[in-house]
Amino acid sequence: MSTVAPERPSSTKPATLGAGRRAGAAGRSFAVLLILPVVLVLLWALVATLVDSLVFPGPLEALGGTVDDLGDEGYRASMLTSLRLLLVAWLMAAVVGGLIGFLLGQSAFWTRVFSTPLFAFYSIPKVTLYPVFLLLLGLGEASRVAFAFFHGVFPMALLVMGATAALDPKLVRLSAALELSWWQRLTKVVLPALMPTVLLALRISFGLTFLGLVLAEMFSSDTGLGHELVANVANVRVDRIAGQVVLIALLAIGPVLALLGLERRVKARAGIR
Amino acid sequence: MSTAVVERRLGLTARAWTVLLVLAAAGLLEIAPRVELVDPFSVVPLSEMVTELVALLGTGGFWGDALAPSLTAIAMAFGLALVLGVAAGVLLWEVRAVRAAVEPWLTIYYAIPTFALYPLVVAVMGVGLGPIVLLGTMFAVVAVVTSTLSGLDAAPRTVLRLADSLQMSRWQRTTKILVPAALPHIVTGARLGLSYALIGVLASEFVLSTSGLGHFISRAYNDFAFAQMYAGVLLVLLLATIVNVGFAALGRRRPEANR
Asked: Structurally, how many domains does chain B consist of?
């Protein structure tokens, strides 16, 4: 943020240079990102070879397990159910949490009132509350979605509330001086200023929503990624479980990397302009 | 101080509103099942939860089968995460190349449902204390690593130069200079780590295990012993609150201890 330089010449040269360098840096950081997974997989393969046990599959066996799984119609249905519920719960958490946070953040007073309860709900172990969801909403998809939503909504509300309450007063005065309408103020000043935090909140909320969903599916569900994991413990299909764990990690990493990239771009743009 | 203006809404300060909110929630939890606003079979009034919890805490079996295993696992997971996390943090901070490769994953880590590993660990190691402590440690350790790194980054350069000028050994440098310098951040990380250890242990017990508080709650649910189940849930919430309040108090005491 400290790189804002309004006195810079308006020539496009530095900007394009910066963009090129940024693209190069992004490519390099992506390559750096791959180092740790590659090392971990190699270590995994090494340990699996040394242990040489049926209950400790190597990466290749896990890959075979995943191929078996993905060839199975039941597993594909499970995966699609999980992804659908994850998307619904995450969107709900984002919209509800974002709106609540934005509204409470309008007032420093109410932000102070609600920050302790919201933080408490964010940090308590919510796992053991799942039976309550089952009792109130039944064994169907509703309880799983609600539980996943319950994991994601508090960090969203908390972060957006904090950012809204801490909005730079200079920006507010600027929009007053420019005599912007209510709508212009919202779309041209307030929302862009909140954007980096909203993206961060979306990312954290995504991870927790996914965690909530997997936990719910593990505890009581007849379908879904979490259910498949637990079902395979009884069958002692360790190769399948290992493959499924990797698959779940990959499903989580995709959206998170996309959000991180977006976050970086938004911040860079804010820094340049 | 007497002229300090405390902002009030409807005559109440922000803190009073927070307390009022909590009391209203507790009142709702008591009254809603009684007037059948919610199904009284599914939700037990708060006073019954408390009575049941007091009764449970008076029985030795509950301590032996539920509370002791959970507290042991949480303490072990937290201790391991703290030691390993600080060690890994210092190591990563010293070796820049490794840090560059690992650091982005520290950011991503909590977005991956690490808990998916638990069934795998159980399949390999069997049900028991080991997998539960392992999962709790995995949940907690990254928060400690991250905070140790930021603590070391924030340490003043002069302090680090002091270590060089005193020609300390690597071990002395770590224990006498680096860790104390990063301590304020480590305390923050430890607070998070303890919360995460709590969540990791309880979730493991809840999903798949044969003892512990999490297991107690899931078994009570399966046995339709809802009063016991709610008492267990209440105890979990109390434990989490004690942990949070305790660490907050520790954080407030620290600056004075330094003087």
From this structure: 2
Q: Are residues B76 and B156 in the same domain?
A: yes
Measured between CA atoms, how close is B30 to chain A, in angstroms? 15
Element (H, E) at A107: none
**Average pLDDT for chain A:** 84
With an 8 Å Cβ cutoff, are A128 and B213 in contact? yes
Residue whose pair of structure tokens reads 């201790």 in the numeric block: B79
Q: Which of residues 205-234 of B touch A (CB under 8 A)?
A: 206-208, 213-214, 217-218, 221, 226, 229-230, 232-233
Residue with tokens 């044969």: B210
Q: Tell me: the pLDDT tens digits for A212-270?
A: 999 999 988 788 898 988 888 877 778 888 888 999 999 999 899 899 889 888 888 77
Domain limits for position B138: 44-257
A117, A130, A232 member nearest B18 (Cβ): A117
Q: Is A52 exposed, middle or buried (0-12, 13-18, 19+ CB in 10 A)?
A: exposed
User: Between helices B46-57 and B226-258, what is the axis angle to 10°?
Assistant: 80
CA dist A151 and A80 (Å) reads 21
CA-CA distances (angstroms) from residue B247 to B118, B188, B192, B241? 28, 8, 10, 10
Q: Is A11 left (phi over 0), alpha (psi -120 to 50) or beta?
A: beta
B170 and B191 co-located in one domain: yes
In a domain, residue A190? The reply is yes
Question: Same domain for B49 and B39?
Answer: no
Check: CB of residue B195 under 8 Å from CB of residue B184: no
Beta strands in B74-155 (DSSP E): none
Backbone angles phi, psi at B200, to 5 degrees: -60, -45
Is the Cβ pair A120, B102 closer than 8 Å? Answer: no
Whether B39 and B53 map to the same domain: the answer is no
Report ipTM (2 d.p.): 0.86
For residue range A16-73, what is the model confidence (pLDDT) as tens digits?
444 445 556 666 777 888 888 899 999 988 988 888 777 788 888 888 888 888 888 8
pTM, two decimal places: 0.86
| C-alpha radius of gyration, chain B, whole number | 23
Question: Do B145 and B88 contact (CB within 8 A), yes or no?
Answer: yes
Q: Which residues on chain B are in Cβ contact (under 8 Å) with A254?
A: none
Query: Both B208 and B190 in a single domain?
Result: yes
Residues B123 and B210 in one domain: yes
Provide the domain limits for residue A135: 60-270
In a shared domain, residues B33 and B135: no
Q: Please check whether residue A185 lies inside any domain of the structure.
A: yes
| CATH number for the domain harbouring residue A157 | 1.10.3720.10
The number of folded domains in chain A is 1
Cα(A231)–Cα(A218) distance, rounded to whole angstroms? 9
Angle at B5 between CA B1 and CA B6, to 5 degrees: 105
How many residues make up chain A in this entry? 273
For testing contact with chain A, the best of B120, B121, B222 (most A CBs within 10 A)? B120
